[in-house]
Amino acid sequence: MAIERTLSIIKPDATRRNLTGKINAKFEDAGLRIVAQKRIHLSLAQAGKFYEVHKDRPFYGELCEFMASEPVVVQVLEGEGAIAKNREVMGATNPANADEGTIRKEFALSVGENSVHGSDAPETAAQEIAFFFSGLEITG
Ligand code: DAT
Ligand code: MG
Question: What is annotated as the active site (predicted)?
Fold first, then answer.
């Protein structure tokens, strides 16, 4: 398995509850390195652009408003098979279906306020990393 990079977002429900450190510990314990990280407050337009792929789904408006409601922490995680590994550590989208020990099982409030975002494939990881970070901001 190759070394990969993936885009992670610690969402407003988690930053609000001061869970950034606990969530980062889950990534690091799984062998994922945080090679870039910043705290930002997305505008509604920026959230809409990031989640454009979901624009026809019924929850799109609610999702964008939530993501723009309070600051988020955007980060690049690096490691062996980082994209799949991160999805494993995150757990299922709906916390009711997430495995024990996953971030969403432990911290998510609902299917909407589910604490973390993670890229789902190499192409989306590359696009999503470029959405938030320039090459100079990623240290390796
Ligand atoms: P994931 O974040 O696990 O990749 P996704 O890409 O299908 O899940 O959806 C993106 C986000 O949209 C998800 O993290 C939370 C929100 N969402 C998904 N399904 C939803 C639903 N049924 N009701 C409300 N929000 C939902
Ligand atoms: Mg997704």
Answer: 117
